[in-house]
Design brief:
Low-confidence stretches: none
Number of strands: 10
CATH topology of the largest domain: Beta-Lactamase
Helix content: 25-40%
Distance between the termini: 22 Å
Number of helices: 5
Strand content: 15-25%
CATH class of the largest domain: Alpha Beta
Amino acid sequence: MSPSAPDLVALVDDTMRGVFAQLDSWRTSIETVLATEPRAAELDDAVASLVLPVLADEDSLLVGAGFIADADAVGTRGVHFAWWLGPLEDNPVLGATTVPTRLDLSTRGYTEYLRDFRSLEWFRVPTTTFQAHVTGPYVDHLCTCDYILTFTSPVRVPGDGVAGVVGADVAVRRLEREVLPALLRVEQPMAIIGEYGRVIVSTAPGMPVASIVPEDAVRFECATAPFAIVPSP
């Protein structure tokens, strides 16, 4: 029996639930570490111990993960990235890697926009709503040069407000491996779309990745993320 739209919704919800649960676990641990007022190096070590085992897993859904701190929270100048990338296929920025590597912004000459990182969606939304957020799909020019979804959740310290965000990147191509087999078993072409109607994964020729579906399209809403299943018109 081929899956129905509700079946696809359940599949997407199960997949996204795992990502959010991972963020919640990391957030709790990082908040505990921040309560001890660690130096930046100590914080980095703590974050690495959390994310590296997940990124090193060959079946991991995540292509990157870590903690982006407001400078005031860790006593550094400017944005502080404790962020690691999982093994990557050959790409224009990093080439091919076989083990997780730390993101080194000092080698990037085009990251001036990060000086105002508080205005970027993946940081601004969770730190103002105090809720987890999904940004994308968008092309990640910083690391993978491919379409990704960025999941972020606010990290708070009692009495001090928001210290930053814990986050995880999911490559659209990796997500396809999880959901495309089910989509292909549906007789009618379908697409998974994000919050603003932008296509994430699709089997419909007229609905390529990153295209935007009409606002009046039939949608089957997901519960765990701002995604929906949209049948091809």
